[in-house]
What we know:
Blueprint: E1 4-9, H1 24-31, E2 41-45, E3 51-54, H2 60-65, E4 80-84, H3 90-93, E5 105-109, H4 111-118, E6 131-135, E7 142-145, E8 148-154, E9 178-184, E10 187-192, H5 200-206, E11 211-215, H6 223-226, H7 248-252, E12 259-263, H8 277-284, E13 287-289, E14 295-296
Parallel strand pairs: 3-4, 4-5, 5-6, 10-11, 11-12, 12-13
Antiparallel strand pairs: 1-2, 1-14, 2-3, 7-8, 8-9, 9-10
Amino acid sequence: MGFRARILGAAAGGGLPQWNCGCQNCRLAREGAIPSLTQSSLAVTANGADWAVLNASPDIRAQLTASRALAPTGLREVPIRSVLLTNGDIDHVAGLLTLREMQPFTLFATAGIHAVLDANPIFAALKPSVVTRSEVALDQPFALAPGLTATLFAVPGKVPLYLEGDTVDTQLLGEQTVGVKLEAGGRTAFYIPGCAALTGDLAQRLDGAAAVFFDGTLWTDDEMLRLGLGSKTGARMGHMSMSGPDGSIAAFAGIDVGQKVYVHMNNTNPVLHPASPERAEAVAAGWIIGADGLEITP
């Protein structure tokens, strides 16, 4: 069995339903009328036996329990070789605390993201004698798991919410928000769960990919404002929207990508309703709406 990816969690922070939200999607998910989703994470393998987890969501225990391929193969033997972080957001790092049970793996991240973890003593629960912390430079390929090569690259974004100051650069290019290029068996895929804009350089990088897992946080930039569920636009949160002339559907229209998959979708996003016209529009444009447990073979 070759290169494949499994979506562990397709939702943005808070999941679907979000515990304190009574929006239509959350109400329907609680009723079982639409699928529930856990928070953002992806598992990848080049051989079916050795896996890497991209982003450690707060829901990681349930995600791993639901994934037979990631279950222990012995008393304290698991097929997870590494965890990679694309930013320091709570919904991408909180799950590290669940992985503290003296289980060896390598934790990959940029120096900037490692610095965020190092500044919080709670992450010392991942004992250095057990979990190897590996700093990764941008645009330098490295072995993420047997047979699987990864390369991190900067994408427009911002620092985590808990690090924001009075002035926030939502188009920051650096080590705080990265995308991941994955290569195995002559195939290439990309994982970009957070992205504020699809620049020309990024479009060129993605052209020809077998698969791209991309930020699908909101359908419209003012979505949360209109619903009375927030005070920030998608752009202010560091996410480009799906729809509109500046959205990702339009931006990807001229890029040659085999499979385009939305991940990191907010609980308010109408594409999460299987019968919504927004979902139909995205699917008609060639997009797959990610779901927990969905497997993609790039």
